[in-house]
Amino acid sequence: MGQGPVYFDNGATSWPKPEGVYGAAEQYLRTGGANPGRSAHARSLASERLLYESRERIAMFLGARKTEEIVYTLNATDSLNMAIKGVLEAGDHVVYSPFEHNSVLRPLYSLRESGMITTTMLSGKGGDVVNADEFDRAIRPDTKLLLCTHASNITGRIMPVQAIAAVAASRGVLFLLDAAQTAGAIPLNLQEIGADMAAFTGHKSLLGPPGVGMLYLREGVSIKPWREGGTGSRSDEEKQPSFMPDYLEAGTMNTPGIAGLNEGLKYINDTGVETIRNHELKLCQKLLSGLEQIPGIKIFRGSSLENYVAVVSFVMEGMDSGELGFILEEGYGILCRTGLHCAPQAHRSIGTFPGGTVRFSLGCFNTEQEVDHALQALSEIAARL
Ligand SMILES: Cc1ncc(COP(=O)(O)O)c(C=O)c1O
Hints:
This protein is an alpha/beta fold. The chain has 2 domains: 252 residues, 3-Layer(aba) Sandwich (Aspartate Aminotransferase, domain 2), CATH 3.40.640; 112 residues, Aspartate Aminotransferase, domain 1, CATH 3.90.1150. The chain contains 12 helices and 13 strands. Helix 1 runs antiparallel to helix 8, helix 9 packs parallel to helix 12 and helix 10 packs across helix 12. Bound molecules: pyridoxal-5'-phosphate (PLP).
C-alpha cells in the first residue's frame, strides 16, 4: 500500500487524478489564462481551441453525433437542472425511478410544489433495478419526460437505459439520462442508448477536476436556456444566439477545469475504458467475497458483477454507518462515504432509510492491497462488537 489514505470515495469524486490533469490546469492558469472566444489575440484563440478540442474529444468519447450536441456546464446537477427546467412546461407529467439523486428529486419537487408539473415515481418493487415496462405503464397523455439514472450511486446497479430510451421513443416522450456514475466507468455510447438528453459530470470517473460537467442535447431537442448572457458571438444582438452551443453557454467557461478534463479523457482513451472496467470489477470481486466472510456485514448488491459499477454499499449489524465510517478513517485511514448519499428514495427502496449505508466506491487507481487493508480493518472492527 502506498503512502496516504485509502481513498474509497470515487463515487463522490475521483482521486487521485492522472498527472496530466494537474499539469494542464496549472499550465492554463500560468501561461494561457485568456478568455476563450472573446478576443482576437493569440491567447484567447488558444483557449477557444482548447474548448473546441476538448468538446470534440468528449463528443467522440460519448458517441454523440455532433460536437455541438455537447454543452459545457458546471456539473451533473447543473446539467440536470438545465434539462429538467428547460424542457418542462405547465401541465407536463414526468416519470422517474426511485434511484434518482437529489439533483433530480429536488428540481422535480420544486416544480411539482409550485403546481407546474405532476410526477410519478416508480415503485422500486423490482429490487435494486427498474425496468422499461414500468416506465411504459406509467406514461400518460400529458407525459413529457422519462428520467433515469444510468447506475445507482448507492447500489451501483446499472439500469436498462437503452430499453427505457426505446420506450420513450415509441411513446413520443423525451428521455433524460443521468450518467454521473457511468461515464468513464463503463463503455457508453449515446447513439446506441438513444437518450434525448444526458447529464455528465467531469470530476468522477471522467477523472477531471471539479467544476465542469456536460449536457448532451440530441440535435432537434429544444430547451429553454436558464442562463443567458455573453458568448463572444452576435454581440450586436440583445437576443441570445440561437445556435449551439452558444445558445446554452453564456458566461466565461471554467477553462482550467476543461483543460484538466481533456487530460482525464486522454488518460481514459489511452488506458481503455474496458481495461479500467476490468480492473474495477476485479477489485469489486475481491471486496465482495471478503465482505461476505465478515460476520454481521450485509451487502446491498446482487450477485452478478457485470450489472454493477464499482460501488458497494453495506452495513455492519450493531453499528451505526456514520460511526463505522469514522472508525475506518480514524483507525485505518480509509476514506469512504456514509449515510444517504443524496439519494433518499433509493435508500427507502433497498430498506436502509434513514440510517443509510457505508459506501465503498472504487476507482481506477485503487489497488488489491487497499482492498485487503479494508477487509482486514472491517474484520477487526466486527470482531470487537
Ligand atoms: C447519480 C448521480 N447523479 C448526479 C450527481 C450529481 O453530481 P454533481 O455533484 O457532480 O453535480 C451525482 C453525484 O454524486 C450522482 O451520483
